[in-house]
Amino acid sequence: MNTTRRARPWNFSAGPAALPEAVLHEAAADMLDWHGSGLGVMEMSHRGREFGSIRDAAEADLRELMSLPPEFKLLFMQGGGLAENAIVPMNLMARSDTRTADFVVTGTWSEKSCHEAARYGRANLAASSQDRGFRGLVPPVQWRLSDRPSYVHVCTNETIHGVEYGELPDLRGLGCDAPLVADISSHIASRALDWSRIGLAFAGAQKNIGPAGLTLVIVREDLLGHALPVCPSAFDYRTVAESGSMYNTPPTWGIYVAGLVFRWLLQQTHGGLRGLAAVEARNIEKAALLYDAIDRSSYYSNPVDAGARSRMNVPFFLADPAREGDFLEAARANGLLQLKGHKALGGLRASIYNAMPLDGVKALVDFMHDFETRHA
């Protein structure tokens, strides 16, 4: 095993997660004085010219990065993905007189979404993989969609169980004209998305694009204006869109750092590719390296169906679970942090978001080989 240690450890946290080191350096340099303004970003008026330029650049760069069509509004909000489990139904549940939303449950986060939405209408369980331990996806042809749902909800990457949609479902092909709502929190900006299949997507920033406190909502214009009377004004998507995300004070620092990340992602290159195409190609390479190490081993295992494995979050288990503590202690000693699995699932987990370079995954794989040699 290569015992050379770099100055900074590799952070495999599922969130709040690692940020690109170049972004951290730039943010640190701007902390006291942003571009000669004499102010740090956290001290600026959110309605001032300086922050306005930061916000506008962040939106423009994300639109370019993710190829967002013009009919989608980009909202900078707060509350995280968990709050959106309530905010989405408060905005969309009344679109249909059935006051029903359909949910496809493939893990903990889509399960939470379904339970929360039931506070605002009827939450129909259209499909679930719980009977298989959330180890895969349910084919859309097996979904039991309700009659005229207000929307259909999926979590496109389940952080805890490590399950990801390789392709977004096509509701029109299922004879459903309801909008697809996608919780993309843990793989936003990691791969291309087919926006023709999405009505609304949301993401907490802290997993792949910035610090905790910022939430992104990407919503098609025709879905605005359906909020329930109980919906607070600050959470009404139409109000937020019409005010340019300035109805209340937005998370200014989070928007600034996310903007740096968007620019960093646009500048990425890999094998002749640029921007999101390069980012996705690198993520494929990183995930393949780690899964191959697990699959070739008799000591490590990953239970997720091969076609549903997440590129971002890789849970794995030791043949001897009693050794998990030893594994985590030795990993920390080798500069590999935050590898403990979620308490709901146990085991181990490596989150290899955009900011994790290939060298970090190689370091983990080398360590895993060494640990197996010493303990198998």
Relevant terms:
Aspartate Aminotransferase, domain 2, 376 residues, 2 domains, 9 helices, Aspartate Aminotransferase, domain 1, alpha/beta
Ordered list of secondary-structure elements with their pairings:
Elements: E1 10-11, H1 21-29, H2 49-66, E2 72-77, H3 80-92, E3 100-105, H4 108-117, E4 122-128, E5 151-155, E6 157-158, E7 163-164, E8 180-183, E9 200-204, E10 215-220, H5 237-242, H6 252-266, E11 269-270, E12 273-274, H7 275-295, E13 300-301, E14 313-318, H8 324-333, E15 336-337, E16 348-351, H9 358-375
Parallel strand pairs: 1-15, 3-4, 3-5, 5-8, 8-9
Antiparallel strand pairs: 2-10, 6-7, 9-10, 11-12, 13-14, 14-16
Helix pairs in contact: 1-6, 2-6, 3-4, 7-9
In angstroms, what is the radius of gyration? 21 Å
Helicity, as a percent range: 25-40%
Widest sheet: strand ordering: 2-10-9-8-5-3-4
Approximate shape: globular
Count of individual domains: 2
Question: Which oligomerization state do the chains in this entry correspond to?
Answer: single chain
The total of beta strands comes to 16
Number of helices: 9
Main sheet overview: 7 strands, mixed
CATH fold naming of the largest domain? Aspartate Aminotransferase, domain 2
Mean pLDDT across every amino acid position: 95
Question: Could you state the order of secondary-structure elements as H and E?
Answer: EHHEHEHEEEEEEEHHEEHEEHEEH
CATH homologous superfamily identity of the largest domain: Type I PLP-dependent aspartate aminotransferase-like (Major domain)
Text of the CATH class of the largest domain: Alpha Beta
